[in-house]
Amino acid sequence: MSKPVQITISKLAKTSGIWGKNDLIPKKLFKEIKLGTDDLGIITTERENLDASTMGTTIDLATRCFILKYKDAFRQARKGADILNLLDAKERASYPAELTLDTDYEIPLYGDALFEGANSLQYKSLSKVTKGDYDIIATMAYLEACYRSLNTLQYPIKDLNSVDFKHMKIFMKRCKNFFQHFGNPSIIDYEIGSETLYGDGDYLSPNYLVDFKLYSRSPIQYPRNRRQILMYYLLGKEQHRYPEFQTVEKLIFFNPRNDMAYVVSIEDIPTDLIERTRKIMDM
What we know:
Layout: E1 7-8, H1 9-13, E2 31-34, H2 52-67, H3 75-83, H4 111-119, H5 131-149, H6 162-182, E3 187-188, E4 191-193, E5 197-200, E6 203-204, E7 208-212, H7 223-239, E8 250-255, E9 260-265, H8 271-281
Parallel strand pairs: 1-5, 7-8
Antiparallel strand pairs: 2-9, 3-6, 4-5, 6-7, 8-9
Helix pairs in contact: 2-5, 2-6, 3-5, 7-8
């Protein structure tokens, strides 16, 4: 018997033809919470130089590094550097393929130096972080994207401009305030999987599961997000790898662009929706 093919939860969440129009958490069940970190309102992408994906990953990695002091913040980026053959031979792992850099972006450091500078940033206080520090984090975001896609990105990562830097400082203050409001996570960058599904999420605590979404719009406007976060919860609870999944009470999206949290209580999610989602996950 052949081994089942695994796909990512994010891919399943946006696969057409298998989901009914009601196979997702209704928007009306989410409570929208204004966190009130500042009075700056929505921070748009206007005049930002980084593309949206790189900006989102950069903020996620910066949160793990500067706010949560997570020592493995650049674990996935290191795998990307390995695949791109940027690490010293003694550090290399075994990957089925090796990519070459074919973009206009030039990685400024190699080998140990590539990550020594990034890892040292966790000792900085948020108020001391410089534009150059965020440049390093953006490089880590690029490498992580290469790992996740198992492909060299077909566009150059751009240098941060003054608007990027200004916005990043706002986002980081808002991320810090989110954790002050809801409490710090006990698990960062969790991984879950079954024979047919796997995925990794942002933050998990005994009380909540949260995904950060750096969008110009509300993250609950995208059906794939509402499907994805429910599948994270269901698979995590069934897997029993993290005890936190057994006590989670809330599923949350947090968007640093508008400083809003979108919260749904597990007890409010219809049981028939949970059962339909489980059946699709087992297909």
